[in-house]
């Protein structure tokens, strides 16, 4: 359990977020939700359309735009919605607990992802990541861990409820978008994203610790995409 001060501050924040949003805050939240749910998909598909064989430089630009989108969402949250980072699960737990839970949830998701990949024969072909330097691939998986958890777990779930969506829909909608966004890897990738995303979502709902989610997500992608090239 969190120390008492964490639980108390978070309870106050959650209570405030269930109140009706002022007009300006609602507009900022709607913009933030659009960015959280769709900005990464839009950025990715623009680059896929105009530069399908993009090299390291363009991929760094793409990742930078996604990080910028995340920064915009955090700015909206803090300075237009008037919310604290705790409201989306950041800073709700001591760092060592976040690290420990991140390792546990990462191991769980990795094991399930590997099992599903073997069952569906996913990952037998080549990926665009194979053509990129290890440093750029590391940037990609770092962005995936940070930005995807911020967007599809912490921000979207909490803010969809803040604008009046019921809890089941607020939980399901980001998970569905997150899963379908992996369509570029085929149906098997969508399935893997859905199952592992559901685990990450359940953990977030249980612990409200987005840092642990980020660590776990990053470890899965790092182990799958970077580690083999480092030890190979």
How would you characterize this protein structure?
Helices cover 77% and strands 0% of the residues. The radius of gyration is 18 Å and the shape is globular. The chain has one domain. It has helices at 4-17, 23-50, 56-80, 95-120, 134-162, 167-180, 187-207, 210-225, 227-231. Residues 1-19 have low confidence and may be disordered. The N and C termini lie far apart (41 Å). The chain has 232 residues and is an all-alpha fold. It contains nine helices and no strands.
What is shown here, in short?
This protein has 232 residues and is mainly alpha-helical. The chain has nine helices and no strands.
Any key phrases for this structure?
single chain; 232 residues; mainly alpha; 9 helices; 0% strand; globular; disordered N terminus
- Helical proportion, percent range: over 70%
Mean pLDDT comes to 91
Question: How many DSSP E strands?
Answer: 0
Rg over CA atoms: 18 Å
Oligomer: single chain
Distance between the termini: 41 Å
The amount of beta strand, in percent, is under 5%
Total domain count: 1
**Structural category:** mainly alpha
Topology (SSEs and partners):
Blueprint: H1 4-17, H2 23-50, H3 56-80, H4 95-120, H5 134-162, H6 167-180, H7 187-207, H8 210-225, H9 227-231
């Amino acid at each position: 359990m969190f120390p008492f001060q964490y639980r108390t501050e978070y309870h106050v924040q959650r209570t405030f977020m269930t109140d009706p949003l002022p007009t300006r805050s609602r507009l900022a939240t709607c913009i933030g939700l659009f960015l959280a749910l769709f900005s990464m998909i839009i950025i990715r598909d623009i680059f896929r359309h105009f530069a399908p064989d993009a090299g390291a430089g363009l991929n760094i630009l793409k990742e930078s735009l996604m990080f910028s989108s995340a920064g915009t969402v955090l700015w909206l949250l803090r300075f237009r919605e008037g919310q604290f980072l705790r409201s989306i699960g950041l800073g709700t737990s001591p760092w060592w607990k976040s690290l420990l839970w991140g390792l546990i949830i990462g191991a769980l998701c990795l094991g399930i992802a590997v099992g599903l990949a073997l069952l569906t024969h996913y990952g037998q072909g080549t990926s665009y990541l194979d053509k990129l330097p290890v440093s750029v691939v590391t940037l990609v998986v770092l962005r995936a861990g940070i930005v995807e958890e911020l967007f599809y777990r912490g921000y979207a779930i909490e803010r969809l409820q803040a604008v009046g969506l019921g809890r089941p829909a607020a939980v399901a909608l980001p998970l569905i978008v997150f899963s379908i966004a992996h369509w570029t890897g085929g149906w098997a990738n969508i399935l893997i994203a859905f199952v592992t995303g559901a685990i990450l979502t359940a953990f977030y709902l249980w612990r409200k610790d987005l840092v642990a989610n980020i660590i776990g997500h990053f470890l899965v992608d790092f182990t799958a995409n970077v580690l083999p090239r480092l030890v190979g």
